[in-house]
Amino acid sequence: MSNLTRTQKIRSIIAASSGNLVEWFDFYIYAFTAIYFAHTFTTSDNPTIQQINAFGIFAAGFFMRPIGSWIFGSLADKVGRKKSMVFSVILMALGSFIIATLPSKDSVGDLAIILLLIARLIQGLSVGGEYGIAATYLSELATEGKRGFYSSFQYVTLIGGQLLAVASISIMLLIFTEEEMSAYAWRILFIIGGILALGSLFVRNIMDESATELHKHEDRGTLKALLKSYKPFLLVLGITAGGSLAFYTITTYTKIFIVNAGMDKTLANNVFLIALFVLMIFQPLFGLLGDKIGHKTSLIIFAILALFGIYPIFMLLNANIHNATFVFALIVALFVMLSFYTSVAGIFKAKLFPEHVRALGTGLGYAISNAIFGGSASWVALQFKNAEIENGFFIYVAILMAVVLITALCLPKKSELN
User: Fold this and answer.
1) Distance separating alpha carbons of residues 167 and 153, to the nearest angstrom
2) At 385, is the secondary structure helix, strand, or coil?
3) Measured distance CA(293)–CA(201) in Å, rounded
4) d(C-alpha 197, C-alpha 21), whole Å
5) Burial 319-328 (b: 16+ CB within 10 A, else e)
6) 193: left (phi > 0), else alpha (psi -120 to 50), else beta?
7) Rounded-to-integer distance, Cα 39 and Cα 298, Å
8) Quick one: DSSP state of residue 183?
9) Mean pLDDT score, 73-84
10) How many CB atoms lie within 10 A of CB 191?
11) Region 72-83: what's the mean pLDDT?
């Protein structure tokens, strides 16, 4: 465990969190601008098919996460959390700059979408490493009794990245028309993201190392060492499968859903902007609640609420799409149930593993399930919609929530955690 002073811990948390925020801003700007640039890279004239192609690439980026988690998680367990976090943010900047300068299908034909895919794979590699290292780093800085509160800042900045992405679009729409956004202005956001990512390198250099006993294990950061912790690894896989699906369904697909249901794009963006701010504020509060009632209990509450709540809330959104106030209230309700998961997600995963494989186990377990079930959420939902059986997607979500509930009930007691 880290022996840092309180001042060093606060400084390190701020440094780690700010870098985390920038990385997720870069990653999510794609999700929220896809409706503007989808036509630039695909030959179809069907808006739904354009979105399917764009979010298919969004999902493909997630399949690089396990590789990124393996590379950067192993590096973090071998040479330290700080160095690995610096390397990951450099990759994110590279991906953003590539997307900003990509040629359109009118210039290079089908090569355009291939180049977009390559850029997203680079970004997927970056965030694949980021999640596990950040969760591990914050858990190792946390003091007993406040671990949920400390670890909640990972999702404060993760959601903050989404919030900044949505806010930046709102600002852009004050400056540019929707036609200009679709034509060229969306590229500006990726340039800004790349610059911010490079700027965060300076901030991360002031971080202190959190791990203290890595050198004691010759097999640290290896898959062989991780194999000895296969039980917690399976638990992380099970809970992340549904947790990630719920996260991306609620924080990403909801906006697409209300726009496709008939809400004005600008209004939907503003409603979501305010709601995401509320979600960000929720995280430390629910982190403190998790410290009081137990992290396992928080996950069980999330699973039950999501199992029975997501489907009917989306049906209410569809039926009341022209009532912005009610739509906002329903989105906040979704965010409340999600916060029982996000506020403790990092800490429960990290504390399942011993220190010498913590970054690798946390990141790889998260990335595999996230790649399969999280990043594909919008793509799968749009496939159901295109097949005119959109409600089938929410049945799929409910099944995964049942998996989360069963897995959460199998989590060890607090005394058994590392």
Assistant:
1) 20
2) helix
3) 37
4) 9
5) eebeebeebb
6) alpha
7) 42
8) I
9) 78
10) 14
11) 78
How far is 241 from 404, CA to CA, in rounded Å? 7
Helix H or strand E encompassing 53: helix 47-62
Instruction: Give the list of residues 6+ apart from residue 174 with CB closer than 8 angstroms, or none.
Output: none
d(CA 53, CA 383): 10
List all residues 6 or more positions away from 16 whose beta carbon is below 8 Å from its beta carbon: 85, 134, 137, 138, 204, 207
User: Cα(180)–Cα(88) distance, rounded to whole angstroms?
Assistant: 32
- Structural domains in the chain, CATH included, are 6-416 (1.20.1250.20)
Q: Please say whether the beta carbons of 275 and 332 come within 8 A.
A: yes
Burial 175-188 (b: 16+ CB within 10 A, else e): ebeeeebbbebbbe
Return the amino acid letter for 106.
D
Residues 294-303: pLDDT tens digits? Answer: 889 999 999 9
Nearest in space to 41 (alpha carbons), one of 193, 182, 188? 182
Interval 107-138: pLDDT, tens: 888 788 888 889 888 888 887 777 777 777 77
In degrees, rounded to 5, the angle at the alpha carbon of residue 137 between the alpha carbons of residues 132 and 139 is 95
Which residue is listed with tokens 């630039």? Answer: 40
Give how far Cα 302 sits from Cα of 249, 336, 417, Å: 14, 9, 21
Amino acid at 113: I
Judge contact between 135 and 362, C-beta under 8 A. yes
